[in-house]
Amino acid sequence: MSLLTRPAKSITLTDLLCLGFILLPVSNALGQVPLYIAGVWGLVLALRGRVQLNRPEILLAAGFALILLASVFYSVRPDNTLSKLNRLLLFPLIFTVPLACNGLDRRAQLLRLIRAALLGIVILSLYDLVRVPLEVRAGTPLFHTGNMTAPQVYMITLFLLLGHRAESRRPGLAGLLLLLLLITAGILLHNKRGVWLATLLVLPVWTLWSRQWKTLIGMILIGAFAASLPFVRARLDNIRDNLSPRHGGRYTLWEAVAPRLLPQYPYGMGFNASEHEDFRTIIDHVNADLPRNERYHLEDRLRHLHNNLLQIRLELGWHGVAWWTLWMLYTLWTAFRPAPRELRLLRGALACAVLALLLNGIVEYNFGNSEIFMNYLMLFGMLHAAATPTPATPQKEGRTA
To answer: Is residue 23 one of the residues assigned to a domain?
Structure first.
């Protein structure tokens, strides 16, 4: 058969998901394209009856998606809400990922997805290791070279790496140490203390689950070295200043804004509807009755409450935050419940990645960040794939030309 007549290899769902995992850390704009395509593809397969839509994780995600959609009708800024409803096309990733990993080769497919995530994070870390020193040399303070998204992706990938290593014994020791150093450098350079704390809290959970004691000892040594770095100590020493009205960040949002703004919207403001001016109005009203030296400062451009529960409550009301909490609790129960040893280590690593994201969500509205939201959904899908018993016979994966 000639090259001209030989049929091209079909693109699979796993190919699209891997491409999304590789590109997402590098560029959100590029990475979301294959993930949106995969989500739409999974939705088509669901409509054709290829997906059991009565599964609890799917029903919980679908219910939350419906609450997002319904918020359009009571949103205080409908245009803001409508502008983000394209995310509804990503929700099918929860069943698209298990569908892509279905069959007797589920373990190999999950490991392939993790390797794609590792490739993406290696590209990001190499970029950061060049970018950050150049920006600092040009006069930018180290703190301002970081962002909120990248360190969370580094954190997720750390647990995926540990799970891949525990499940497959790969990469080897040299490769593992190199990847750990790259990921640790990325986490530190972005200067996000919430990520540092979430990582430190979840590493012992992973150790208890996996019995990988040497990994914990190695991470303790790396953490001790990191704590000796001047910029790390400076960030930790600055925590007290952050927890004051004069700083204008989370303390102001949680202590002054949230208690006064939430009661005004028992059913929520609408998805993505809050703006800085809403917070500014509250602070101006509070400061009017305070002496000058006791007034609250509010950082510019803040438009969310830097906490998943508070912001979802503000946007979607009590019913929205209750449903979201039920969804997250079910996910964690699925992750950590006793189950057969099949894929146990992979499931534990995925569970730890989700738990770390949720812990970081105490100090950051990371469920609302588009890139982190896609990582949440990918992790949910991989987690449910790892927690589902392998079928007796493989099922064919959907394909497209």
So the answer is: yes
